[in-house]
Amino acid sequence: MFSNNLAVKQQTVKDQVYEILKHEIVIGKLKPGESINISKLTEELNISTAPVREALNMLAQDGLVTLNPRRHASVTNIDISDMEVTMRLRLLLEPYSAELSIDNIPKEDIDEMRQKLNAVLEKPYDEEIYIESDLELHDILYRYSNSDIVKKTLLMIKEYSVRLRFYGEFFGKADESQRIQIIRLSTEEHLGILDAVEKRDVDLLKTLVYEHIKNGTERNYSTH
């Protein structure tokens, strides 16, 4: 059931369960409306029920899980209207965060990121590699902004937009060949963005980030 079927360290049980479930929901492994089997989860992770319920309460506060009066849990449904809102927020904030970050991104991060993106192009059918590279590429564009406000705001927006985007790409109307094409197109755009970072060309970077977000949203609309 869970792709992150990991042993949980006892001292951080609640937080680790929260992160595992949030990851599964955000990338669409746990689908909108799907019930979360608490008994099965506690068995897979070899933990008690209490931290699972605590983690579910945290996810309910995030709007990712719905708890009914009998304490059953299910993944909240996706509201497509949120896609327009998150796109507009990303178009405003991500080019700006990239501008703040561009001169601070280390060369070793750029080289490592390029290797990961090239690995995606070699295996475009491997969704996990693609998702990891996508999240990391966008992460470095605000991680080095030196602004806590920018980081916290984009982190919150990312949790909404990633769920909408990956669910559309992997569980929407697109068939396997279309998904592979989407992954290739997105990754090629990521490489262009990375080239602009390496050149320290801020104007080009802002333009490419803006266009990438618009293109990604249009691709997502076509798959929903």
Instruction: Give the end-to-end Cα distance, rounded to a whole number of Å.
Output: 24 Å
CATH architecture of the largest domain: Up-down Bundle
Q: Give the strand tally.
A: 3
The CATH superfamily of the largest domain is identified as: GntR ligand-binding domain-like
Largest sheet: 3 strands, antiparallel
Order of helices and strands: HEHHEEHHHHHH
Secondary structure: helix percent: over 70%
Arithmetic mean pLDDT: 87
Q: How large, in whole angstroms, is the Cα Rg? A: 18 Å
- Secondary structure class reads mainly alpha
Per CATH, the class of the largest domain reads Mainly Alpha
Domains, number:
2
Shape: globular
Beta content comes to under 5%
Number of helices: 9
- Uncertain segments are 4-10
**Spatial strand sequence of the major β-sheet:** 1-3-2
* CATH domain fold name of the largest domain: Four Helix Bundle (Hemerythrin (Met), subunit A)
Question: What would your notes on this structure say?
Answer:
It is a single chain. The protein folds into two domains: 10-75, Winged helix-like DNA-binding domain superfamily/Winged helix DNA-binding domain (Arc Repressor Mutant, subunit A), CATH 1.10.10; 81-223, Four Helix Bundle (Hemerythrin (Met), subunit A), CATH 1.20.120.530. With 224 residues, it is mainly α. A hairpin with a 5-residue loop joins strand 2 (65-67) and strand 3 (73-75). The radius of gyration is 18 Å and the shape is globular. It contains nine helices and three strands, in the order αβααββαααααα. It has a three-stranded antiparallel beta sheet with strand order 1-3-2.
